[in-house]
Amino acid sequence: MKVTLLKPENYTRSLWKNGGGIFTDIAGAYRADAPAKDWSSLLWRFASTPIMTPGPFSYMPGVDRLQMVVRGRGLVLKAPEREFDERNPFTTVRFTGELEIVTELEAGPVEVVNLMARRNAAEIELVALRESGDRRLSAGTHLVYAACGDCHIRLDGEDFAITDGSTLRVELSEASEVALVSGLVVLGSIQVAG
Questions:
Q1: To 5 degrees, how large is the angle CA 148–CA 188–CA 105?
Q2: pLDDT bucket at 169, cuts 50 / 70 / 90
Q3: Residue 103 pLDDT > 90, yes or no?
Q4: Residue 33: pLDDT above 80?
Q5: What is the mean pLDDT of residues 168-177?
Q6: Which of 45, 70, 77, 154 has its CA 20 to 30 A from that of 18?
Q7: According to DSSP H, which parts of 105-190 are helical?
Q8: How many domains does the chain have?
Q9: DSSP per-residue codes, 27-55
Q10: Is 80 exceeded by the pLDDT of residue 34?
Q11: Are 19 and 95 in a shared domain?
Q12: In CATH, what number is assigned to the domain containing residue 186?
């Protein structure tokens, strides 16, 4: 097990693919053989971003996306013949990057967390842990994000305090157990194919 604390002052910023906003990049992985870390070499990415005004989402062919509102409320994603309801915070929605989506903000700006992965390159999961108790983690990369205040977790019997906005990156070579002790965390899990 390898554990690294990622702090907000070390996060990077990048433009949305369509240029309509700015991501706060928390963690990610790109193809090792790629000449640049860009959208074409992306394997997976964990980021937060404000959505300040209604508008279209970026077109991301071949990318699967998970999203969750962590601040604010009232977000709805509208696609042809389908709607993704994120009106209540900490609700995860899954959609593909090919889908034409336009946002609707019913109660003002929101902040969301995105976990995205190149299709067939990684399996991803995004959940909010709000109640104390154990959760099994499979081998892979896990990101424990303190999205709205300080929190405290126990990982294989070891205690970790995570300050507001920070992320504990956990690399597991075998399955483990995590327990939320206090606060609320957003847990992003990534299992890279192969």
A1: 55
A2: very high
A3: yes
A4: yes
A5: 96
A6: 70
A7: none
A8: 2
A9: EEEE-TT-SS-STTTEEEEEEEEEE-S--
A10: no
A11: yes
A12: 2.60.120.10
